[in-house]
Amino acid sequence: KEVDVVGELLGSASVKQGYKAYKLDASGNIVGEKALKFIRPMAHVEATENMEIVKRAVDRLQAVSVGVPELAALKNAVDMLSDTLLGEIEKAIGREMDMPGEIRGQEEIGGFIRGMRDNGWTIEVPAVDANLKGAQFFADQFIYGEHPKGSFKEKVGLRVYKQVARAAFKAVVSMMLVNDRYHADLHAGNIMVDGDDTYDPASSPAMI
């Protein structure tokens, strides 16, 4: 009811995809934009099947490598894939597909990080749309900008690049030491920097 058109792909991970979504008025004009994130269809099935394949392969390798000196290195590697490690991998997959948990995390972090300022840069966490969230998907604000990959560093210069890095670092330290909640996936694809061609820190907020 809130989204009329699903547009271009914004990003794709192992089990999730993000698309730009549009709300239209009666004349078909765009009146709102959102970022729609959802778990890929069949991701649960694929993850379960892939883990079963890994478990069977580990069992087979352990069986064939016992007592074979030439396969000692292989056995050592396979032994590292113990039930404990495989269990941790399964837990990690479960967390990755826990969309309600991700929503709660984004809302909590946004609650105490959104609006933080450092040296002219403002940290902004996109707000989740209360009407568009569930077990398989959620939508949040779409923020224009570019992530700090590729030519961003060259475009803004080292001084501004360091300012952005400092703002992000300060935000994460505050999360960990003050709020006891932190963004655990802070790679370059999850940081966006919004601004004009001059990248003036006074008017260009850093979006995380």
Element layout with pairings:
Blueprint lengths: L4 E8 L3 E9 L5 E10 L3 H23 L6 H9 L2 H14 L2 H15 L3 E2 L2 E4 L3 E6 L3 E5 L10 H28 L12 E2 L12 E2 L1
Parallel strand pairs: 5-9
Antiparallel strand pairs: 1-2, 2-3, 3-7, 4-5, 6-7, 8-9
Describe the structure.
There is one protein chain. With 208 residues, the chain is of the alpha+beta class. Helix content is 43%, strand content 23%. It is globular. It has a 5-stranded antiparallel beta sheet, with helices on one face. Helix 1 packs antiparallel against helix 2. The protein is built from 5 helices and 9 strands; from the N terminus they run βββααααββββαββ. The mean pLDDT is 81.
Main sheet properties: 5 strands, antiparallel
Number of DSSP E strands: 9
Rg over CA atoms: 22 Å
Cross-sheet strand order for the largest sheet:
1-2-3-7-6
Considering DSSP H and I runs of 4 or more, what fraction of the residues is helical?
40-55%
What is the quaternary state of this protein? single chain
Taking pLDDT < 50 over at least 5 consecutive residues as the criterion, the unreliable ranges are none
Count the helices. How many?
A: 5
Mean pLDDT: 81
